[in-house]
Amino acid sequence: MQSDIDRILISRDEIQQRLDQLADEIAADLRGEQDGGAPAEITLVPILTGSMIMVSDLMRRLPLRMQIHLVSVTSYPGEATTSRGAAIEEALTSLPDSLESRHVVIVDDILDSGATLELVTSLLRRRRPASLRSCVLLRKQREQPPSVEADYVAFAIPDEFVVGYGLDFDDYYRNLPDIVTLRRDLLPPEEPA
Ligand code: IMP
Ligand code: MG
Predict the structure, then answer these.
(1) pLDDT of residue 116
(2) CA–CA separation, 2 and 145 (whole Å)
(3) Rounded distance, CA 117 to CA 134, Å?
(4) Choice among 24, 112, 159, 178 that is catalytic
(5) Does the predicted model carry a pTM greater than 0.90?
(6) Can you give the pLDDT at residue 193?
(7) d(CA 181, CA 158)
(8) Which residues of the chain have pLDDT under 70?
(9) How far apart (Å, rounded) are the C-alpha atoms in residues 141 and 72?
């Protein structure tokens, strides 16, 4: 697996340091939502599968009372490295019918075209949360900006295909501790823009 790596883009230490800052920022914003003295009711919504490592590191840095509900989205079937549109996987999704009076934070691994975040945002808005924020580990700096922006971004990266720290290629490499690029010969040929 290690020999498949081209280069390390963001190291495990850099990720942990940045998450300290980001968690402080998110915690401060959520504390600011308190309702007439009562602490805000918080719900974290990680998007599976890519955000599983990120959310486990992030939530332990948020010393706030919170619930967690999962949403599963597929957008890169098999060995695709460009989005094929986003679809909810109902069987792995555990959302309550209503999120009324709850302050919701979506957590995803990477914001690319924005299709995933847009889909999950609309799914959650229908459940009428008191507030809705989104947090992504990575945001790709694409020529064409994403259809939606995230409220919190840990790192902006060049428009390259990356794996590790939860991100996959054909469901492999999620367990790499750093965020890396793969050797070019392992990826499918680049598609014309
Ligand atoms: P979007 O819907 O185009 O914004 O893409 C978001 C989803 O595509 C993410 O949740 C990832 O699962 C996946 N994705 C986008 N770029 C990459 C990448 O460079 N490596 C691995 N997965 C990616
Ligand atoms: Mg994903």
Answers:
(1) 96
(2) 32
(3) 8
(4) 112
(5) yes
(6) 58
(7) 11
(8) 191-193
(9) 24
